[in-house]
Amino acid sequence: MSLTLERLQSLMLREIAVVVNKDRKIKGQMYFNITDVKVSRDYSIATVYYTILSDEEEELKRAEEILNDINKDVRKEVAQKVKNIRRMPALKFKFDESLAYGNKIDQIIEDLKNEQ
Q1: What whole-number distance in Å separates Cα of residue 10 and Cα of residue 8?
Q2: Which of 39, 59, 88, 93 could share a disulfide with 54, CB 3.0–4.6 Å?
Q3: Using alpha carbons only, what angle is made at residue 31 by residues 108 and 3, rounded to the nearest 5 degrees?
Q4: pTM above 0.90, yes or no
Q5: In Å, what is the CA distance from 55 to each residue of 25, 26, 67?
Q6: Spatial CA neighbour of 2 closest among 48, 35, 39, 47
Q7: Is 108 exposed, middle or buried (0-12, 13-18, 19+ CB in 10 A)?
Q8: pLDDT tens figures, 19-61
């Protein structure tokens, strides 16, 4: 029995969020909010979208480095938890810019209200 693409994405979203954040206090990591997971149709690549609580360039770069460092460990742990898949997709972490974009739009609307 194999998992449908949508079910796999949902399952991976939950498991990756737990695995990525479980040892953050020990390693001094920041908190990652995993917002979405998109798996390719051939199940070879899973793009994992994340956000962090800071929008500073230095923090974003540090977050990317941390995720690249723990990529293999995360993939291994998630593969152990997701049993009904033949081959675990490669993980590709990508910063989710939609939250920052939404905040920018909110700020523009607020500025327009204040001008009136």
Answers
A1: 5
A2: 59
A3: 95
A4: no
A5: 21, 23, 16
A6: 39
A7: exposed
A8: 988 866 545 667 889 999 999 999 999 999 999 887 788 988 9
